[in-house]
Specification:
Shape of chain A: elongated
CATH superfamily of the largest domain in chain B: SoxY domain
CATH class of the largest domain in chain B: Mainly Beta
Number of helices of chain A: 0
Order of helices and strands of chain B: HHHEEEEEEEEE
Low-confidence stretches of chain A: none
Strand content of chain A: over 45%
Order of helices and strands of chain A: EEEEEEE
Largest sheet of chain B: 6 strands, mixed
Distance between the termini of chain B: 26 Å
Oligomer: heterodimer
Number of strands of chain A: 7
Structural class of chain A: mainly beta
Shape of chain B: globular
Distance between the termini of chain A: 28 Å
Mean pLDDT of chain A: 91
Number of helices of chain B: 3
CATH topology of the largest domain in chain B: Immunoglobulin-like
Strand order of the largest sheet of chain A: 4-3-6-7
Helix content of chain A: under 10%
Mean pLDDT of chain B: 82
Number of strands of chain B: 9
Strand content of chain B: 35-45%
Largest sheet of chain A: 4 strands, antiparallel
Radius of gyration of chain A: 16 Å
Largest interface: A-B, 35 and 40 residues
CATH architecture of the largest domain in chain B: Sandwich
């Protein structure tokens, strides 16, 4: 898993900062079957995402299995300055987690 | 079989117990715990009640759903919800005909704008419903999306 799990791009447009995050995750629904064995592939999906700016939570997301594979998330918030850090982290239903930081540009 | 699944359940919960005891689960993350009941609700009304804590929903013209009219691939349907309302506390996305209608819910911070963009899976042609909680009240808007290839299953 050398691949980066979260890629973030944060840009300011006037007062508003737009954050775009792309995560790498299989997002298995638990409904799909393995075509060779016919066995169900167990669910494996991101449940919680937390986005923080200066230690304050700007967004907390709860996801179900209906979010697409390699999820994308974008949101906007105010009150940031250029050069601030934005942190995005996730936890999935198997207890795995990842986090990444990016500077607002 | 029943006994086996019971055992599995006990083991899983004891592991969780150990994790909590070791301080791996901080109180903060417990507070923002994943709303399991909301993601198990089979109807939209139950889902709204479980996710947002109320079921009084008013339709609103101030919620904009940007999504394709026809989704060629139900596994990846880009959706953007935006609203001009002030004091937006949460946004939730429901897909009526999915096995579980609630796709995702978002809790917004005080400085966060009423704007969310993500990609969802849709099993078949269905209404997509966005519910916005603003100043304690719920508002909704919906959009029909036609799906030509489903995204929930093989």
């Amino acid at each position: 898993m050398a691949k980066k799990k979260i890629r973030i791009r944060a840009k300011m447009k006037g007062e508003v900062t737009e954050v775009k995050a792309l995560m790498s995750h299989p997002m298995e629904t638990g409904l799909r079957k393995n075509k060779k064995t016919g066995e169900k592939i167990p669910a494996h999906f991101i449940q919680d995402i937390t986005c923080e700016h200066k230690g304050a939570r700007v967004l907390v997301a709860h996801w179900g299995v209906a979010i697409s594979k390699n999820p994308y998330l974008a949101f906007k918030f105010t009150g940031a300055a250029k050069g601030d850090t934005i942190k995005v982290s996730w936890n999935d239903n198997k207890g795995e987690s990842a986090s990444a930081e990016a500077k607002i540009g | 079989m029943k006994r086996r699944s019971f055992l599995k359940g006990t083991i899983a919960s004891s592991i969780l117990g150990v994790a909590a005891g070791a301080g791996l689960l901080t109180p903060q993350s417990v507070l923002a715990a994943w709303p399991k009941a909301a993601f198990e609700a089979k109807t939209i009304d139950d889902g709204i009640q479980a996710a947002l804590g109320a079921s009084d929903v008013t339709e609103s013209g101030d919620i904009n759903i940007k999504a394709p009219d026809i989704a060629e691939n139900g596994a990846v349907v880009p959706v953007t919800i935006s609203t001009g309302m002030s004091g937006v506390e949460s946004i939730a996305i429901f897909i009526e005909k999915n096995p579980v209608p609630l796709a995702s819910s978002y809790d917004l911070g005080p400085n966060t704008e009423g704007f969310i963009s993500c990609r969802v899976k849709m099993g078949k042609t269905s209404d997509l419903i966005a519910v916005v909680k603003s100043e304690g009240k719920l508002y909704s808007a919906k959009k029909m999306i036609k799906v030509t290839i489903g995204g929930c299953g093989g």
